[in-house]
Amino acid sequence: MEQIGYNLLHDPRRNKGTAFTKEERKKYKLEGLLPEVVETLKTQLLRINEQVERLERPLNKYVYLLQLLDNNETLFFRTIMDNPVKYMPIIYTPTVGDACTQFGHIFRRPRGMYISINDKGNISSILKNWPQEDVRFTVVTDGERILGLGDLGMSGMGIPIGKLCLYTACAGVPPEYTLPVVLDAGTNNESLLSDPLYPGLRMRRVKGKEYDEFIDEFVSSINEVFPDICIQWEDFAGTNAIGILEKYREKVCCFNDDIQGTAGVIVSGMLTASKVTGKPIEEHRFLFLGAGAAAVGIADLTTKVLIEKGLTKEDAYKNLWLFDSKGLVVKSRTDLKDHKKPFAKDHEFIGDFLEAIRKIKPTAIIGLSTQKGAFTEEMIELMSELNEKPIIFPCSNPTSHSECTAQEAYDWSGGRAVFASGSPFSLTTTDGKIHFPSQGNNIYIFPAMGLAIYAAKAKRVTDGMFIAALHSLSNQVTKEDLKNGLVFPPLHDILKVAAKVAADTTKYIFDNGLAGIERPNDIESFIKEKMYKPDYR
To answer: In sequence order, what are the residues at sequence separation of 6 or more whose Cβ sits closer than 8 angstroms to the Cβ of residue 341?
Structure first.
């Protein structure tokens, strides 16, 4: 039965608010429920932008925008897509970190699905409560390692909500096919356990066999209920993130954005930074501060790209060095987890990162430590002595955990750094020269990957798809961008960039027999036709 009257104004997918025409108001029994004037979408946007500007705190702007999403989906996405530079930092990093830490305090209306470990044995029937029968994407977290903030338990739901907003806002994945999910297995965060407004399970995290069975039932259940689903794993703790990805990547359509998405965007940045330095990527030496899932994912994907460039696997490994909380990852250490061992070097142990720079002489340092200020003045000065154009990538999120700021990197390198960060930084000036800091944001990769998977009904997600995506991204950085020191395309072009990345990834999907549909004649046109457009119908 067609929805009419007052209820229609509370259906975010169909609500137009003051933009309902006179004819529609009569047809849907909306007369008297709206002001007399019929407004355009453009007029509504003016009002939204004005109301956002009246709010001072980013978190308040975040709350306001999420309420808009709950009220008028089209107007929300039009707002974001018309001005991504302004709104991306509000609906995702860095503001989403605050939103997660305050999730129980700003909670207004539930969005997505909340599945607890107490639901074991009943997950399939619970998933059937979701009103949309055809879901293509779910972003799933258990909240144990949210950004650089640690264990936020069920409060980590802000991440799946935000990520799926970006699927639509950055790449045009239709929002009706998306589903945010949090898997609540408890939390070890004492402040949350004692917070009366924390809405998750008040118990310590379940580990081991019971946890593994919980994940296993979820994977089988969601694939049973939604056969065309792709699972994006998000913000699981390092060991779990790696283990879950390895267990399911060949069984179902899934990927881990922290591992593969981060790797895709950072390796793309490395390729482009290599162009800026005038030295091909196979001649660079990369030193990672941090050796968790993200760092190893980047190193692993870099290895594949270097092999593609003609290096042997052994020679590729020689260019990639890891430094964790204990020190340099070397073969003599007996405390290395399995995922670090392929990158362990037959080298003396070094416990100080500055000394590691001095001995290894890297051309690039990549920060994934979540330690604010970990790249010191002395380190960047040393990098600048060793390299004419040192590559400095402090990739940790949110901004408060970045290894250094853009201003520090440019000041300490005499303006010579090739810079990209995980969080956004404003334009900076060093010795009278303006610098345009690049943000190595996963939004350049995962939304476009999602669009490609959605369009082609991909059966699996492979590293080859990410390599196709990262090359496409790097190739879209213009000579003018390079001249300005950018290693990623400008954010205001994100929809155009994503469409091209998605098209190139889709070509790879068809070329390698991974598609679930027949190949269209014109893939770029096919992709554009699939993209959601935020206009009233």
So the answer is: none
Find where tokens 């490395």 sit.
270
pLDDT tens sequence for the chain (537 residues) = 466 889 999 999 999 999 999 999 999 999 999 999 999 999 999 999 999 999 999 999 999 999 999 999 999 999 999 999 999 999 998 899 999 999 999 999 999 999 999 999 999 999 999 999 999 999 999 999 998 889 999 999 999 999 999 999 999 999 999 999 999 999 999 999 999 999 999 999 999 999 999 999 999 999 999 999 999 999 999 889 999 999 999 999 999 999 999 999 999 999 999 999 999 999 999 999 999 989 999 999 999 999 999 999 999 999 999 999 999 999 999 999 999 999 999 999 999 999 999 999 999 999 999 999 999 999 999 999 999 999 999 999 888 899 999 999 999 999 999 999 998 898 899 888 899 999 998 999 999 999 999 999 999 999 999 999 999 999 999 999 998 889 999 989 999 999 999 999 999 999 999 999 999 999 999 999 999 999 998
Counting every residue written for the chain, the total comes to 537
Classify domain 260-443 at the CATH class level.
Answer: alpha beta
Residue in the block written with tokens 């922290």: 258
Domain spans of the chain, in order of start:
91-252, 260-443
How far apart CA 188 and CA 198 sit, in angstroms, is: 13
- Residue 480, Cβ density class (10 Å: 0-12 exposed, 13-18 middle, ≥19 buried): exposed
Catalytic residue check, 163: yes
92 a catalytic residue: yes
- Cis link prior to 180 (omega < 30° from 0)? no
**Three-point CA angle 111, 116, 122, nearest 5°:** 100
Distance CA 503, CA 340 (A): 34
> In what helix (H) or strand (E) does residue 394 lie, and over which residues does it extend?
strand 391-394
Q: How far apart are CA 383 and CA 396, in angstroms?
A: 19
Per-residue CA distances from 112 to 78, 129, 171, 446 (Å): 21, 11, 20, 19
Catalytic residue among 16, 61, 163, 500: 163
Q: Which of 87, 92, 177, 444 is catalytic?
A: 92
Which residues does residue 365 pair with via DSSP β-bridges, in sequence order?
Answer: 287, 392
- Which single residue is written with the structure tokens 């082609």? 456
Same topology between domain 91-252 and domain 260-443: yes
Residue with the two structure tokens 């969080």 = 423
Cα(107)–Cα(133) distance, integer angstroms:
26
**Residue 520, SS3?**
coil
Q: Give the amino acid at 512.
A: N
Residue 502, C-beta contacts closer than 8 angstroms, at least 6 positions apart: 171, 448, 449, 451, 452, 455, 527
Yes or no: say if 78 and 48 are a contact pair by the CB < 8 Å rule: no
Q: If one looks up domain 91-252 in CATH, what number appears?
A: 3.40.50.10380
Task: Please report, as a single letter, which amino acid is at residue 307.
Answer: I
3-state secondary structure of 25: helix
Q: In DSSP terms, which residues pair with 367 in a beta bridge? A: 289, 394
